[in-house]
């Protein structure tokens, strides 16, 4: 007497295959916001350096517009230092990530 609700050992039909969910096989695509968050967490000094560079630039331009040459010149020097710090942060992050990749191999 056949059991009710038992599974068949026959190969699945096309209809059964099309109904199965294979979404777990492919990874979920990374959204731009998730990618940005991942990059910021990996190297937080780069966005800080970019923010400092923009702040120095805006401050320097406002001082230039007001005619305060001394403050404008000082702000532009701060901007150059902030840009240099950002470049150093980028290079440092690349060196660290390269060292981690080599260590993990």
UniProtKB/TrEMBL annotation:
Keyword entries, A-Z = Membrane, Transmembrane, Transmembrane helix
According to the UniProt entry, the coiled-coil residues are none
Broad class of the protein's primary localization: mitochondrion
Organism in which the protein naturally occurs: Geodia barretti (Barrett's horny sponge)
List the GO biological process terms. Answer: mitochondrial respirasome assembly
Residue ranges constituting the HIG1 domain according to the UniProt record: 17-105
- Pfam family example for this protein? HIG_1_N
Question: Which GO terms of the cellular component aspect does the record hold?
Answer: mitochondrial membrane
Protein name stated in the entry: HIG1 domain family member 2A, mitochondrial
Bias type Polar residues, positions = 1-10
Q: Which compartments does it reside in? A: Mitochondrion membrane
Domain of life of the native organism: Eukaryota
Residues of the region (Disordered) are: 1-36
Where exactly are the transmembrane stretches of this chain? 40-59, 80-100
């Amino acid at each position: 007497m056949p059991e009710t609700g038992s599974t068949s050992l026959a190969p699945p039909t096309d209809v059964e295959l099309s109904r199965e969910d294979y979404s777990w096989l492919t990874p979920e695509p990374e959204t731009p916001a998730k990618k940005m968050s991942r990059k910021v967490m990996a190297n937080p000094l780069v966005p800080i350096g970019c923010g400092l560079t923009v702040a120095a630039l805006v401050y320097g331009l406002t001082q230039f517009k007001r005619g305060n040459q001394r403050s404008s010149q000082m702000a532009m020097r701060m901007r150059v230092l902030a840009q240099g710090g950002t470049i150093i942060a980028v290079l440092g992050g690349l060196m660290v990530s390269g060292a981690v990749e080599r260590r993990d191999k």
